[in-house]
Amino acid sequence: MRKAALLLAGILSLGLAVVPPAAAQEGAREPEKCPRLIAGPPIPYLQTASMRVAQAEDMVDITFLGHASFWIESPAGVSIVTDYSDWQRPPRTPRIATMNIAHSSHHTTNPDPAIEFLLPGWGDGAEPAHYDLTVDDVWLRNVTTNIRGWNTTEYDRNSMFVFEVARLCIAHLGHLHHVPTKEHLDALGRIDIVLAPVDGSYTLDQEGMFETLALINAPVVIPMHFFGPSTLQRFVSRAREEGYEVDMRSSASIEVSFGTLPRSRTLIVLPGS
């Protein structure tokens, strides 16, 4: 008994904690899947692509369908449509469809029954939506934010969906109405490509959106939700003033990999609405 007491005293004098195995397992954290990068190698420019199954092992296809909807396709052929609605139906059925509730142009009550994973960005009652889902080579999660209601705030009714595909971390901000807090940013983690609403009125105003983009600090921003060329041009002009490289595309699709991310902040403008 005395020997056991002396042994325990010796362990404590060395500053070691005696932790039961069960407690150690409970305290363990799963490795972060989208950690923030500190530095990266020189990388070339993005390449265009049509909407199709990505052929290269590490390439991801992103196609702007219009408004707030994108078709994202992984190297393994997993298809995702963001802010799926009756306004912007994709040409074929995706495996995953995300939705947001702010307006009918961001969700539907009549989805294609063949969609395997239909993910509303709002929860039931007071419970916020929560997703942590792996589908083949896609890892998906969401971070909820608030939206403006009639003279009130509706809590956790919008989701910023994050897709990790082929080492790329892609965030769709949904119908974002406020600058994300530190807690939101910590939950987002490192983001490589932001799909950002830039209308400047129905979602965040222009000041708020550029503050948000500076906080997220992704190398690529793709604008959406811009209601015509004049609103888009206003955002593009401000982006140039903020130091963004501006890459105007004639195709609604790009093919991108982790290795082809630009070194400087780049706004990639895809045709759409």
Tell me the CATH architecture: 4-Layer Sandwich
Q: Tell me about the largest β-sheet.
A: 8 strands, mixed
Strand order within the widest sheet?
Answer: 7-8-9-10-11-12-15-13
CATH superfamily: Ribonuclease Z/Hydroxyacylglutathione hydrolase-like
How large, in whole angstroms, is the Cα Rg?
A: 22 Å
CATH top level assignment: Alpha Beta
| Total beta strands | 15
Helix content: 10-25%
Topology order in helix (H) and strand (E) letters: HHEEEEEEEEEEHEHEHEEE
Please give the count of helices: 5
General form = globular
Tally of structural domains: 1
Model regions low in confidence, pLDDT < 50 over at least 5 residues: 1-31, 36-45, 50-56
Strand content bin: 25-35%
Please state the average pLDDT score.
83
Structural class of the helix and strand makeup? alpha/beta
How widely separated are the two ends? Answer: 77 Å
Q: According to CATH, what is the topology? A: Metallo-beta-lactamase, Chain A
Topology:
Elements: H1 2-13, H2 21-27, E1 47-48, E2 60-66, E3 69-73, E4 79-81, E5 96-99, E6 117-120, E7 132-135, E8 138-149, E9 152-165, E10 168-172, H3 182-188, E11 193-197, H4 206-216, E12 220-224, H5 229-241, E13 245-248, E14 253-256, E15 266-269
Parallel strand pairs: 4-5, 5-6, 10-11, 11-12, 12-15, 13-15
Antiparallel strand pairs: 1-14, 2-3, 2-14, 3-4, 7-8, 8-9, 9-10
Keywords: Signal
Pfam family, one: Lactamase_B_3
InterPro entries: RibonucZ/Hydroxyglut_hydro (IPR036866)
Description:
Residues 1-24 form the signal peptide. There is one protein chain. By secondary structure, the chain is α/β, with parallel strands linked by helices. It has a single domain, classed as 4-Layer Sandwich (Metallo-beta-lactamase, Chain A). It is 18% helix and 30% strand. Residues 1-31, 36-45 and 50-56 have low confidence and may be disordered.
